[in-house]
Design a protein that fits this description.
The protein is of the alpha/beta class. It has two domains: about 160 residues, Lyase, Ornithine Decarboxylase, Chain A, domain 1 (Beta Barrel); about 180 residues, Alanine racemase (TIM Barrel), CATH 3.20.20.10. It contains twelve helices and 21 strands. Strands 4, 14, 15, 16, 17, 18, 19, 20 and 21 form a nine-stranded mixed beta sheet that branches. An eight-stranded parallel beta barrel has the order 5-6-7-8-9-11-12-13, surrounded by six helices. A hairpin with a 2-residue loop joins strand 1 and strand 2. The longest helix is centred in the middle third of the chain and has 20 residues.
């Protein structure tokens, strides 16, 4: 569900017409609904009561400071995967004990930064990484709370680029090796192994893969407890899918209800890492039509947004719903494409699309997660502005990049004359 809706034939975000936002801030433009974010966060929290859980928002989905601060106020912790994300989380007001640091490859400098900031937990991806955490912690004469990400080799039945729990995936320690890795980590004096972590993929709409993976991980936790490891945290990752067009994901309440019996006897605090399920349907990409170009087999609606603004359709073949602003029932067959010089620069392909004209507005729905965070400056295109709407107020949470922003940090070497 979301709070983007038509009133008097015009598309609104909560109580703000999108036409007004386009006139004031220009396009392409990311627009987020605070009410939608809050509703999704509250549903997740409510589904797990009374089981103790920490909701650690997966900030790779959308890492704008305004979004992070809003989620912090709702009671969220945060899941990070880089030094930069730790920095962002701290700037957004999260305490170090609200930060869970995962990711597949952490440099020594990144680990040192996390140890110095005293984040709540560092989740290692391998034994080598645990040894590196040990070296950094020993040098600082500190003991670091750590966990291990295990790969349960479960097919999440999602796009192969976002499947992370299969044996051929780069993520996590193979499940068969996990016990031995814990044994060796137990000999490291400056690490306290307190957590087991799993994350099998993203945009998963079936419950069965989650349940199968958690049954395996739960067995591992029980064995570790019998061996004396003080496992107090079980991080079950994120990956819950959303509706983009016709998908029918399971209910959040069913997710919690079916998982709780599996983990009831583990006596662990759960950590959840929702990202897309909070932010995906809370945001849209607003774009303006530049041209309508008839083709030999189909029409091309050329808009001012491109793969540089939203790469999911080009990268994953993602299928976003689009809505005209204002509403129209007229349809043509064709593609919605951007101005970038790539054949893969499309937002919608081979579909019945609204019959629009130059100057009209179009909303690409469900763009709140993995939208702006994956934007680029390819073709020297400035990245768009971002707006957060709460009720009838709109807040600029990122200004549109300018031409000087595109060359910031670059320079012409002295052996070349400047003109």
């Amino acid at each position: 569900m979301n709070y983007f809706h038509y009133r008097r034939n015009r598309l609104y975000c909560e109580d703000v017409p999108l036409t007004a936002l386009a006139e004031k801030y220009g396009t392409p433009l990311y627009v987020y609904s605070h009410q939608t974010m809050a509703k999704h966060f509250q549903r997740i929290a409510g589904a797990w009561r009374p089981h103790p859980v920490t909701i650690a928002y997966s900030m790779k989905a959308n890492s704008n400071l305004g979004i992070l601060a809003a989620l912090r106020e709702m009671g969220s912790a945060v899941d990070v995967v880089s030094r930069g994300e730790i920095y962002r989380a701290l700037r957004a007001g999260f305490r170090p004990d609200q930060i869970v640091y995962g990711g597949v490859g952490k440099s020594e400098a990144e680990i040192a930064y996390a140890v110095d900031k005293k984040v709540r937990l560092i989740v290692a991806d391998s034994l080598d990484e645990l040894r590196r955490i040990e070296r950094v912690s020993r040098h600082r004469r500190r003991k670091t709370r750590a966990g291990l990400r295990v790969n349960p080799d479960i097919d999440p039945k999602t796009h192969p680029y976002i499947a992370t729990g299969l044996r051929e995936s780069k993520f996590g320690t193979p499940f068969a090796d996990a016990l031995e890795v814990f044994r060796q980590a137990g000999r490291l004096a400056h690490i306290e192994m307190v957590a087991v972590h799993q994350h099998i993929g993203s945009q998963i709409i079936e419950l069965a893969p989650f349940l199968a993976a958690l049954k395996k991980t739960g067995q591992l936790v029980r064995r570790l407890r019998r061996l004396g490891f003080p496992i107090s945290l079980l991080d079950i990752g994120g990956g819950i899918g959303i509706t983009y067009r016709s998908e029918k994901p399971f209910a959040l309440e069913d997710y919690a209800r079916q998982i709780q019996p599996i983990i009831r006897d583990l006596d662990c605090r759960l950590i959840l890492e929702p990202g897309r399920v909070i932010m995906g349907n809370a945001g849209i990409l607003l774009t303006r039509v530049l041209y309508l170009k008839p083709g030999m087999k189909k029409h091309f609606l050329i808009v001012d947004a491109a793969m540089t603004d939203l790469i999911r359709p080009a990268l994953y073949g993602a299928d976003h719903e689009i809505r005209p602003v204002p509403q129209t029932r007229k349809r043509i067959f064709g593609d919605v494409v951007g101005p970038v010089c790539e054949t893969g620069d499309f937002l919608v392909r081979d579909r019945r699309i609204p019959r629009l004209y130059p100057g009209d507005l179009l909303a690409v729905m469900s763009a709140g997660a993995y939208g702006f965070v994956m934007a680029s400056n390819y073709n020297s295109r400035p990245r768009p502005a971002e707006i957060l709407v709460k009720h009838d107020q709109a807040y600029l949470i990122r200004r549109r990049e300018s031409a000087p922003d595109l060359i910031r940090g670059e320079s012409i070497p002295k052996f070349i004359s400047e003109r």
